[in-house]
Amino acid sequence: MKSNNISNRFILLIVVLLLISINSKAIVDVPATSKALRIANTITGGKMPITDPVFAQMVQRVQAGDVAGAALLATNTSHYVNYLAKRLAFQMQNPALDSTIVTDNAGTAFLIAHFSGAGGVPPSISTIWSENATYLVRQAITVSGDVSPTHASSLTPAKAAAVNWQTDIVRVEGQNAKTAAGAVVPIPIPIKHVGGYITLSDRSGDNSFAMYGATAGTNLRMIEAMWEIANGLTLVDVQSSFASPQNVPKFIPQNDPNFFKGDGQAACISCHGGGYSSLNHGYNTVADLFNFDAVRGFVYIQTPATATRKSLGSDVNKRAATLACNLQATPTIQCNPNSYPTDLQQTWDLTQTWSSSGVLLRMGWTGALKGEGLNSLGQELGKSSIVYKYLTKRVVQEICPMGTLSEAEVARIANMANPFAAVRGTDDIRTIISQVAAHASCQ
User: Fold this and answer.
1) How far apart are CA 376 and CA 55, in angstroms?
2) Whether residue 290 is found in the same domain as residue 356
């Protein structure tokens, strides 16, 4: 403890000497300067120099007793955008929130803009899962003066390092994906099927959410990951005993002994029929529409056929057999004969199980309970209070991991950003960041 105190005093002494060297006439307020420095470092990753005019403004805000205002100043800088906003964007590309396996991609640029207001649009949490837009990046000026915007994943390492993520992002209306067959040509994704950042990808191997969710498998993890990243609830947290076999995907074998009653585990039907991966909780909205392969990257399937229908399983050679299954006539073929047929409208309905099981109450769901397509589901998801509470908890872990905030305090801060709360919030994650940074347990 004594060693730590000495180190802290030494650091503070250096700060004081630096400030004095900048302006020998300045009278340094050591406590205010120290607090402003800590806030700046946690929000910008230590990238804001103390010579930055914003830092002086932060000190003044702290001196006036407005710590949250000082933190908000830090979130309005390119240092925040290039550090914390980008880190949070990286995390949201996979349900593990692992930023180390993600690179610059179209989804990253989209999220950075929503976390900072880059690109000239207001920052927004509520539209993360539904906005029909692509965010490109201006390249560093070349000898020829070319500053044409391009996808983030198209930048060379040198140009990527030179990007100012606060000023170099450009918003373009609409989203594109590759075709399922023929030439590798991007086509517009109909707005009904746009899922905000989760349907954005530029190329194969871009480490985007789209790559994670639509690669191989059945696209179960695409819809599961969307829910998990948005609200922090796991698969087990949302399983339901109110499920019906009709909502279980066809490829889940109903003659499995654990289908209706689990033996040392959750019953298959409780998750596949009542959880994230049930047909009516969003799986219908993505299963047969998206794919990701090594040649084309992210693919939108305009006219799903039996061979491309992931709702029939991950093995393309068994999809026809699964489609035609009848357990009584062909008992060797394992499937769920009671599964609802293909839903050409991609409908979703949260009333059948989650209203009864209490999941919607836990989510603080305030939007519509039924709709068609991924876009409408994303719009309603962005209205649930758990989204803002979970983001608040994530921010606490990022900038105040040793802090202690009660559930009531988390809810208070979350509501300040929640535009659907009783007192309309800002819809801006920077509100959450500034409030957490100013919390007494984080000082």
Assistant:
1) 42
2) yes
Do 415 and 285 lie in one domain? The reply is: no
CB 442 within 8 A of CB 413: no
**What's the number of domains the chain is made of?**
3
pLDDT in tens, 281-318: 999 999 999 999 888 899 999 999 999 999 999 998 88
Question: Position 156: which residue type?
Answer: T
Residue type at position 66? D
| Integer Cα distance of 200 and 434 in angstroms | 29
pLDDT band at residue 266 under the 50/70/90 scheme? confident
| Cα separation, 110 vs 128, whole angstroms | 8
Give a yes or no: residue 370 inside a domain. Answer: yes
Helix (H) or strand (E) holding 135: strand 133-138
- pLDDT one-digit tens code per residue, 168-187: 999 999 999 998 776 677 89
Residue 74 near residue 54 (C-beta atoms within 8 A):
yes
Indicate if 435 and 355 belong to the same structural domain.
no
- Are 347 and 284 in a shared domain? yes
pTM, two decimal places: 0.91
* The predicted structure's pLDDT at residue 4: 44
Asked whether residue 369 falls in the same domain as residue 438, the answer is no
What is the phi-psi region of residue 334: left when phi exceeds 0, alpha when psi lies from -120 to 50, beta otherwise? beta
